[in-house]
Amino acid sequence: MDGGGRRLPNASAEGVAYVSIHQIRSDTDKWWDVGACRGLDSGIFYPDDDVEAQAAKSVCETCVVKQTCLDHALSFREKAGVWGGATERDRRRIIRQRRRKD
Ligand code: SF4
């Protein structure tokens, strides 16, 4: 699986393009620049199942921007991939839990 689903907006001459956070250059000052996943194969962040997701989750556990990444994924309703140590299923669970608290 490629990293096409892990996207953040990136202004370009053609309008808004999307790039993998794993492919963003280091001369920017965005939170994903310091993510532990930076430079890794983005494919591991798009696992086929929960067992495969453990590799990505292990990386996220070491990441200094884990909470920010998770907040981003929740805010933008990211549909695929592991973000902030959470799979799509984990994120749906978090959203349900937050709704119950409201
Ligand atoms: S929390 Fe995980 S997916 Fe998010 S930036 Fe860090 S290592 Fe990457």
Please describe what this structure looks like:
The protein has helices at residues 50-61, 66-75, 88-101; strands at 7-12, 15-20. The chain is of the alpha+beta class and 102 residues long. The protein has one domain. Bound molecules: iron/sulfur cluster. The site of iron/sulfur cluster has 15 residues, from helix 1 and helix 2. Iron/sulfur cluster binds at residues 32, 35-37, 45, 59-60, 63, 65-66, 69, 82-85.
What topology does this entry show?
Blueprint: E1 7-12, E2 15-20, H1 50-61, H2 66-75, H3 88-101
Antiparallel strand pairs: 1-2
Bound molecules: iron/sulfur cluster.
Strand-residue proportion: 5-15%
**What is the string of SSEs from the N terminus onward?**
EEHHH
- What is the CA-CA span between the terminal residues? 36 Å
The strand order across the widest sheet is 1-2
Q: Per the principal axes of the C-alpha atoms, what is the gross shape?
A: globular
Total number of beta strands: 2
Structural class: alpha+beta
Low-confidence parts: 1-5, 9-19
Biggest sheet layout: 2 strands, antiparallel
Using only C-alpha atoms, the radius of gyration works out to 14 Å
Count of DSSP-assigned helices: 3
Keywords for this structure?
binds iron/sulfur cluster, 3 helices, single chain, 2 strands, globular, alpha+beta, 102 residues
What is this structure, in a nutshell?
By secondary structure, the protein is an alpha+beta fold.
